[in-house]
Amino acid sequence: MLVAAGLVLPSAVEKAVSELGYSVTLGSAAMAQDTRQPRKLPGLALKFTEDMAKVEEFINPPEPEDGKPAAKQDLPAAEKLLNSMEKKCKDKCNGYEMANIYNFMAYLAYEREDMKKTAFYYEKVVEQAPEIPWGLEEQTLLYLAKLYAGEEDYKKAIHYMDRYMNTVVSPNADAFYTKSTICYQMSDYDCSLKNVNTAVEMIEKAGFVAKEQWYNLQRGINNEREDYKQSLKSNIKLVKNYPKKSYWNDMASFYSLLEDNDKALAVMDAGFIGGTLTKEKQYLQLAQFLYQADAPYNAAMVIHKGMKANAIEQTEANLEKAGRYFLLAKEYKMAIDYLTRAGDKSDKGDIYSDVVGIYLAVEDLKGAIAMGKKALDKKGGLKKPGRLHYNMGSAYFEMKQFDAALKSLQKATEDRETKKLAEQWIKYVENEKDRYERLAEFYDK
What global pTM score does this model have? Predict the structure, then answer.
């Protein structure tokens, strides 16, 4: 199509540029009044406009008349005609006419996926200023910034982005965001943060919500700068306007980094109830917070449910942690279950040894003895063997198995930690054994 007094703007290129991954609002740079002097554009020769119309027909064939076959696009013919026009124009065409030619050459180069040539011809377009409309110059500068960014030539991308922002009456929020993304790719985080903050502020002042990726960029940069307070502000906006499980869970992490554990716990607890927790780290972090808040049962149940949901791996460490929490909550049955399973995965007998003490607490003497034997059978040995032998001696004593009790207590004397107490118990057990045997003899008579 021919527009703006014969100026051709290939719409396909505008669409292509928008696919580079940036937010695009072409030709709407500002709501402010344009106080610039209008450009006096040179005219377009009649023969030139006729040839340009043919180029347009080659690229966008007209709708067929009834009964006639549709014409096919002929890009080689369009390119051949444009090359011929360029040669003829070198000495006699004005800047406005040359801009039309280069604009279409850029379009054809893009269709061939030749980004280098596309950028080259767009640069030729802007070279024709001031003999081209303000709008064409602005759009082409923005095309160039985004094309170079797509090719990862960020130095040129920022050059043309700055030219664009200095050319328009007043850059819009999209422009500031686009510049922010280019600065980010250049690792210029100060520039990136400044521009994305401006973009977000402009949108919010107008009474709207910024795009999700804008808040994400804000949050990411502040997070890299360890400015967690500002990261949290962006994250709260994401939770409010673009609710996702990940944003909810991240909010708890930011509160934790800011050492506001009460709010971190509240957010994570709500997430646990609402089903937003999905990762092992999140479950374990919540369990830790609950433990620190003097709620060991709740902490244990978080791990318990996390394992049921297959979100927490049943490793020795995780099983032991749940068992310890249940033990603190005096949920002895659950503590025995989890600690025994943890002991099964350990190459040492220390966890089994601890379970012996729990069995004694619930007065399950047979369970204590059986677990004690498992602890002694572990090849990895024990860090505190005296404690295990002492507890087993106590269990044997309660079962009136005095010889076994004395044997275990004698081994407990070999450990400095339990030596003194075990020696005292040995005397007591020997006395009880003697008394029990005399009573047995008396009743036998």
Answer: 0.65
